[in-house]
Amino acid sequence: MNGPGGMATLADHKRRRIDELTARTAEGGGVSLLRDAGRRLLRNPAAIVGGAIILLFLIIAIFAPLVAPHDPVQRFPELTGGLTVDSIPGASAGHPLGSDPLGRDFASRMIYGARQTLFVGVLATLIGLLCGVLLGAIAGAAGGWVDMLIMRITDVMLALPSLLLAITLVALARQPTQWTVIVAVAVVNVPIFARLLRGSMLAQRESDHVLAARALGVRQRHIVTRHMLPNSLTAVIVQATLTFAVAILDAAALSFLGLGDPDINRAEWGLMLGVDGVRYLEVRPELAYFPAIAIILVALGFTLLGESMREALDPKNRR
Amino acid sequence: MVRVVLRRLSQLGVTLIALMTLIFFWLRSLPGGPVDALLGERATPQTRETLTRALGYDQPIWVQYGRFLRNVVTGDFGNSIRTGEPVADVISRAFPATVELALAAIVIAVGLGIPLGYLAARHHGRLLDNATIVVTLVGISVPIFFLGYLLKDWLTQGTHLFPPSGRISTGVENTGVTGFFVLDGLLTREWDASADALWHLILPAVTLATIPLAIIVRITRAGVLDVLDEDYVRTADAKGLRNATIRKRHVLRNALLPVVTTIGLQTGTLLAGAVLTEKVYNWGGLGTLITDSISGSRDYPVLQALILLAAVVFIVVNLLVDLSYAVIDPRVRVR
Amino acid sequence: MRAPGRQAYWRRAVIAAGVTTAMAIGAAGCAKSDRDSGDKGAGGGTFVFAGAGDPKNFDPIFNDDGESFRPIRQMYDTLVAHKPGTAELTGGLAESWSNDPTGKIWTFKLRQGVKFHDGTALDAAAVCANFDRWSTMKGDAAQSQMIYYADVFGGFAGSPDAVYDNCKAQDAGTAVVTMKKYKGAFPGAFALTAFSIASPAAMKQYGADTVTQSGDSFSYSAFATEHPTGTGAFTFGGWNKATGEITLNRNPDYWGEKAKVDKMIIKVIKDENTRKQELRAGTVQAIDFPAPADRKALADEGYTVLPRPAFNILYLGINQKNPKLKDLRVRQAIAYALNRPQLVQTKGPGGSKVADQFLPDTVLGYAPDVQKYEYNVDKAKQLLADAGATGLTLNFYYPTEVTRPYMPNPQEIFTVLANDLQAAGIKVTGVPRPWNGGFKDDVQQFGKQDLHILGWTGDYNDPGNFVGTFFGRPKDEFGDQAMTDMFSAIDKADATVDQAAKKTAFEQVNRDLASKWLPAVPIWHAPPALVTTKNVQGLVPSPLTGEQFNTVSISK
């Protein structure tokens, strides 16, 4: 069902890029490729740096209650005392980064921010991944008109710029919550994962071990769940790593547009940057700088790791 | 051939009708809706009722749907709730602004990206190369609205190097011809208007260009590295061809193929980026229109038309590309 | 003006060419400084003002928002006007007005020699033509756009609720408007910008009454979009939608104080941050609604910050549809639980005040001795315990995607108030809703909330415009259908013709609202501001956000 001729439309390029990744992981197939790739990954400094950044933030996120000096939503009298609409108290004893616009401890909010930001990113990626994988698996396993229908829909979705699609989805939601943001950002990724998985499964359908299993009379469902799906997951994991960075950037952009998470009690970097950071940029620039730097670092970490994984899996680099 | 075109067009029709139906029923199932959007705090229950009647919302949904379809078929998308103007006017005014901005961004991204990528590849593994990689990676990871705010803060406040917002200075006469302000000034020989528009264009274009620029640098670099490794380049080198000739004839030309592809791929990124950039710089294009018609105002007629516009552009472009391929390469059959 | 950058320099020279020439001439004129109005070219130049949103159209009667009223106010006049900088009434197109003892017949003595921009004379017949036009407007499309008319005049000709009866031109200079009943809104409502007097000839020529429905919205006549014709200090110059600029030209034949600038441009800049930056770049000379956070910095940099006297109210609405909230003690507990002084200190725009009743102290009927509900968490907890409402859980609706002069940042306000309520043991579930995507619908029409925040900016100086609007009739917003004594008390106060008696009646209403009824908790009065560059003089901030720019001049 590839469009007639591999032509130069937007969707086709996105498609081709995805298919390329599929091919890389599908063609070698099996454990030896993965072991090779893993070895190459560990030798790549970019991957190490990326992984270290992610690990650091992960630790902060998991141990936030231990690391943070205070409760991120509590308002402190010593902070609200000096707080007015045009001045926000800076660092003081017990509050290393000072106050946020509502008299909460900014340092604690930054630390808990790791948790919420990773939560949004992981969930958005995971939901996109699961739906995409499910659709892709159905398309790949069923073939025929089901495949055709699913692929047509993903084509249309791929054609729309991701942020536009997310904005529209948020606007069409009944009530803005953190979940509308997560879902909107997730939906954008569904077609990518669907296509990825379907391509990989198609490639495997004709592969030796699947043919062998079929010849042995193994049931179709068993072949799909036990053989085809696990083998397709490598490509999906690489894509998920790259998706993550985009997801938190999109969430921040939605907040900036006033369409993000409406609960400003929640400490999430995108929200902190897009709402308070921009609004109080002149009053206290740190409110923008710190979340921005954190977002850049995390996005950088995931991009570095994802790109390195993609590189490592590239058969061209197998030497 | 004609049959193919006809069939594709009818497919387009079916897709559009399906999409419109979806949009229509979805929008009507939302709380608030146009009645809410049109009324301020001062509305009495009677006004609300009159308005509901005036908009025909008191009629059965299928009557409304019929009227909606008829309007759309006749090209009437209704009026913007926010400004009361016909939707077509609103969109056709915003369109050139965004195209102007996007083109400028592409020019910057390509103009800087290719030389930078090439230089990085030539200095493979050295400081310049590594610095380029780091900078481009950060470039991809920066939220661009934040970058826009920073640029604006640094370059328009205090120093006044650039204007903070808008497309042209107040009081500068520009006769509208195409809606592209820089071009309009040239066409009508209002040089100062053209210069002024260009001056307003620079910062937003730079902001919008960051992500495509970073990507183009990376792709060019990778492309050049690949090509440098190819046999024909080594052969050329061995033949003793001058460096400049090799560069021009073999390396760049071949390395640029993926770049061209990437530029096409970036159109979507540009549009998404335009939403953010236009908000930061008060740039009256499609991006602003999208934000304006969602955030705060819920301008459903405009939103509806914008979604349809996106779909039509996608379908038509696809069709044109398919057809042109069939024309160029007879081996490709249009199905 | 600060030193522009290198690149900017030649550019600026070009733009400013016209402006500076005019300014130079103006400076000479200024030095002589003649105060008597109506001389030529006093000041001169172009005044660029940054507004916050697109206007809808320029036909006064079809508008209800401040951004449309801003240009309309410069082009039209009302029968009765406000003294600059106050909500007090003074003569407008009518030099004087009187009311008969029944309060139903209004006699306007019109100013002599006033001409519309199209050259036709403003006389009693023209005034009556405007009243008649409004009351007999045909079609749902047009009627649904006349928000203020429906609110003040009850209904259109033929409707049983219609307040307006007829208008007679006694002679060319005297218009007599007869109402079917007395209404407290008058004469204040005659000063509403929506009821500006337009040229009947121009309205006829450009088909002003045609409002057509198109899809989910409306389109307006050429009168409303291209040929607005009033008597105001400025005439319509044009509306460039691509750049968002409305140009107004000085009306050399204005009857009052003629505009000091030759030209005024209202530039639409929606983002408050960008408005501020344009002010600093010197491309605009004044901005409306600066971000509260920026006011101090701008003042420190030498800009003139002009806070308007607060004429608004933000309140926390309580919905008695929830049986728990029917108990006055619970509502009082909510009032005690809110630390309003702290909210004003931390989040109030400069000059904000804690509100103890639903109208500002400049309005008739303000009672200084209402029950105040000083912040007291223990008392709140005690009251909740007495009412058997411990462990109360309430949903709290707040709007997103909006800022209002009385509510610059709803999310922050909600968060602070919810925090206070939690501290008193009331569990709060926040429900965010987009302003136009369900908030108004859910809160005002369906009453889905237990608590919500909303507010109001006064239209004219009358207690009915505040208290009457909120609590004068049963509303789903407050679920207060059972509070009949409240409605009748407000009704009676509103129908009192004698001003002294009306004052006493409304003072009692305000006292009872605070102690006996408490259908909502008043939060604050927050003054919105204007900021101008140093060289702008004569801009008088109006509590009603009804600034007129004819007094503005630009010096060197």
Explain this structure to me?
The complex is a heterotrimer of chains A (319), B (335) and C (556). Chain A has 319 residues and is mainly α. Chain A has 13 helices and no strands. Chain A has helices at 10-28, 31-43, 45-62, 64-67, 77-80, 106-142, 144-159, 162-171, 178-205, 208-215, 220-256, 269-279, 286-313. The longest helix of chain A has 37 residues, at 106-142. Chain B is mainly alpha-helical. Chain B has two domains: 15-73, no CATH class; 87-332, MetI-like fold. The longest helix of chain B has 39 residues, at 191-229. Chain C is of the alpha+beta class and 556 residues long. Chain C has 18 helices and 23 strands. Chain C is globular and about 70 Å long. Chain C starts with 5 loop residues before the first helix and ends with a strand. Residues 1-42 of chain C have low confidence and may be disordered. At the B-C interface, helix 2, helix 3, helix 5, helix 7 and helix 9 of B face helix 1, helix 4, helix 5, strand 9 and helix 8 of C. Chain B: This is Peptide ABC transporter permease. Chain B: Keywords: Cell membrane, Membrane, Transmembrane, Transmembrane helix, Transport. Chain B: The chain crosses the membrane at residues 12-29, 101-121, 133-151, 197-217, 255-276, 305-328. Chain B: It is a multi-pass membrane protein. Chain B: InterPro entries: BPD_transp_1_N (IPR045621), MetI-like (IPR000515), MetI-like_sf (IPR035906).
